[in-house]
Write a structure and sequence with these properties.
Layout: E1 6-11, H1 15-24, E2 30-36, H2 40-46, E3 48-52, E4 56-60, E5 65-67, E6 82-85, H3 93-100, E7 109-112, H4 121-126, E8 132-137, E9 139-145, E10 148-154, E11 160-166, H5 172-183, E12 189-191, H6 195-216, H7 220-224, H8 229-246, H9 255-265, H10 272-278, E13 284-285, H11 286-289, H12 297-315, H13 320-362
Parallel strand pairs: 1-2, 1-6, 2-5, 3-10, 6-7, 7-8, 11-12
Antiparallel strand pairs: 3-4, 8-11, 9-10
Helix pairs in contact: 6-8, 6-10, 6-12, 6-13, 8-9, 10-12, 12-13
């Protein structure tokens, strides 16, 4: 790595990627570029506006803003020391890896800053000799509209926890050195030697709260106002904890109760899955639950819970609450997918009519009523 500069590419310009990149960019030696999808036009022209409870407010203008699927031609012009993958796992890792393949050099470090379990595996398989790190986000944040990021909740310190996913061919010392260099870029970042246990801790929290919030339509504070709601959350957390222990993971036995305490001590948390549910968008289910789906965080949630349900079957653990909420989420998700199948063709038809009308007006044509 060049000692004078550190070139960083954030692949996935949503809320997590924007905040992670913004904080790294505060270092004078860091040069941060971002790859965006739907918000590319706004971010490329105006950058990001950020309102956060952890760092205050700020403006972030990435050094360069690329469009996903159109960065291969930049191979010879850019060399990145770190590539941070903060794209949704449901967006399809194949296209992301195709974008990244020509950009990854032997000394490039890759970081997965995504929700769910085993999200680092595609990076490790695609780049077996590179350092692969895992970053866990412990804040609640969202993109309220393209280019505008809000963070309202600090769920747990540090804001980002960074660890080595699996050893590379370069050895643990090199991997750990790159982890530590990244963790040193912000006072709210920290390094850990046990990233797998930390991923399970977050999985337990997400599986208990995200699904319950998505089903009820309530944020964490609203949910806790209902008698019996905390008991359901604890039961979900306890089942997820037991799956982790049965899988050989060393976990704090107080984790199920801490899942409630963290939410009680935090500002109200509106999980991204609840945002999707309120907007009636299909959910991210696969990294938590185990299915391979596309589009929203609702889908990723199904993935994570599906992962737990499948893992419970593998290790022989009874998980009635997780199975129940997984079934409800799948039914809700199917309804959203069906609605989207009706709405999207209508939206395309309206767009086509508007485009035709604009063409007629711009060309000076007039329509006669017969």
């Amino acid at each position: 790595m060049n000692p004078s500069t550190c070139n960083v590419l954030v692949y996935g310009g949503g809320a997590v990627g924007a905040i992670f990149g913004w904080r790294i960019a505060q270092q004078s030696h860091a040069r941060v570029s971002v790859v965006c999808r739907s918000n590319w036009n706004v971010v490329s022209n105006h950058g990001y506006y950020l309102r956060t409870s952890t760092w205050g407010n700020g403006r972030f203008r990435p050094r360069q803003v690329f469009q996903a699927g159109a960065i291969a031609e930049l191979t010879d012009k850019h060399r990145f020391d770190y590539i941070v993958c903060s794209n949704k796992v449901t967006d399809g890792y194949t296209s992301a890896l195709q974008d990244l393949q020509p950009l990854v050099r032997p000394d490039t470090t890759l970081i997965s800053a995504q929700n769910g379990m085993d999200v680092e595996v595609p990076l490790r398989k695609a780049f077996p000799n590179n350092t692969v790190l895992s970053a866990i986000c412990n804040i609640g944040c969202g993109q309220v509209r393209p280019g505008y990021i809000e963070q309202t909740a600090a769920i747990k310190r540090p804001a980002f926890l960074i660890g080595v996913h699996s050893p590379s061919s370069r050895g643990h010392n090199v991997d750990a050195s790159r982890r530590d260099a990244l963790a040193a870029m912000d006072s709210k970042f920290a390094a850990t030697e046990c990233i797998t246990g930390e991923r399970w801790r977050k999985l337990i929290f997400n599986s208990a709260w995200n699904g319950t919030c998505a089903i009820t339509g309530l944020d964490t504070r609203q949910l806790l106002e209902y008698p019996g709601a905390a008991e359901v959350v604890i039961q979900l957390a306890d089942e997820a904890y037991k799956v982790g222990v049965a899988s050989g993971i060393d976990l704090d036995p107080r984790l199920p109760m801490k899942t409630i305490e963290l939410a009680q001590d935090s500002a109200p948390i509106t999980p991204s899955t609840l945002q999707d549910a309120r907007a009636r968008r299909p959910m991210e289910l696969s990294p938590i639950f185990g299915e391979s789906s596309r589009t929203s965080y609702f889908t990723a949630l199904l993935t994570s819970i599906g992962y737990l349900v499948e893992q419970a079957a593998r290790v022989g653990t009874h998980v009635p609450y997780l199975t129940w909420i997984y079934t409800l989420l799948r039914l809700r998700n199917s309804a959203y997918v069906a609605e989207q199948a009706v709405v999207e063709p209508l939206q395309r038809s309206f767009a086509a009519v508007e485009e035709l009308s604009s063409t007629i007006v711009s060309s000076g044509m007039s329509a006669e009523v017969m």
